[in-house]
Amino acid sequence: MKPAVLVARAVFPEILERLRAHFEVQSNDDDVVWSRDELAERLRGKAGLFSTGGERVDAAVLDANPQLRVVSNMAVGYNNIDVPACTARGVLATNAPGVLTETTADLGFALMMAAARRMAEGERYLRSGQWTKWSYDLLVGSDVHGATLGILGMGRIGQAIARRGALGFGMQVIYHNRSRLAPEDEVPLGARYVDKATLLREADHLVLVLPYTPESHHAIGSAELALMKPSATLTNVARGGIVDDAALAAALRDKRIAAAGLDVFEGEPVVLPALLELPNVVLTPHIGSATGATRRAMAGLAADNLIAALTGGTPPTPLNPAVLPLKLS
Ligand code: 8YV
Q1: Mutation test of ligand 1: which of 50, 100, 263 has the most ligand atoms closer than 8 Å to its C-beta?
Q2: What mean pLDDT value characterizes the chain?
Q3: Which of 92, 278, 286, 306 could connect to 72 by a Cys-Cys bridge, CB 3.0–4.6 Å?
Q4: Distance, CA of 111 to CA of 105 (rounded, Å)
Q5: pLDDT digits (tens, 9 = 90+) for 47-92
Q6: Which letter does DSSP use for residue 291 in this model?
């Protein structure tokens, strides 16, 4: 008998077809967002879960489903999965790194440019019929080319954004990260490793690309925003919760920083009303990886992981390889 798997959200039909060749698949074609209890309930009897970044898989969900062997996340971020709890129970967790790096870097750069050049504000101004004449100071913003690009979190996506800035826009790159890059990665970008306070003080455009962990919760709050230049922009394409959204809204309102570009929010898809009311913030609904090719690649990698793990193969991107090989019944 084929193992049973649960696909937590709607995905490409061809991915479901691939999975059906190996598994009894319970899909969620109506794309309903399940509560944690509903997820735990639907996981009954399933050996695998195809999850997205939105399903919380914690000790309670795992304990309710001792038959579960694999959680395969269609996302590079995995803060929705309690990986140590998986490891303790011999459950493999996998994510989808690499395939979304350039696409997410594109969106991060676009948001930074939109914030610096006030593009969303300009579009609202035009659409609402307020554009009646040219003025020397109409919607003036700040330059991106030649400016100092600050990156907090210099992993794959951070480095891809740094490449765009250094090689395409002549920006000076400074960064802060848990560990410093190897010289062969720093030198081609002219990237300078600095402490966090220096990063905040010197960046003209600060981009956040670090994973969300208990340590990175509110890594940017009012104290950090106070260190930034009043002319600076802040862009977050990582995770809600890294920025204290209420503190950011206050800083934007009081013009303590110039503008922000946000793709992720605390408590998303609910967005803090104070942010919605501000003109100087560009808002997108968590679409960093949202191109057809990249979403297909992410779903494909998540399927590869699930299939390999449950058929005795080698999953390409395990988070806790210590649990391999899995005991499959
Ligand atoms: C996903 C993301 O679309 O991969 C990630 O970590 O944030 C996005 O690319 C989102 O997590 C939904 O799975």
Answers
A1: 100
A2: 98
A3: 306
A4: 10
A5: 999 999 999 999 999 999 999 999 999 999 999 999 999 999 999 9
A6: S
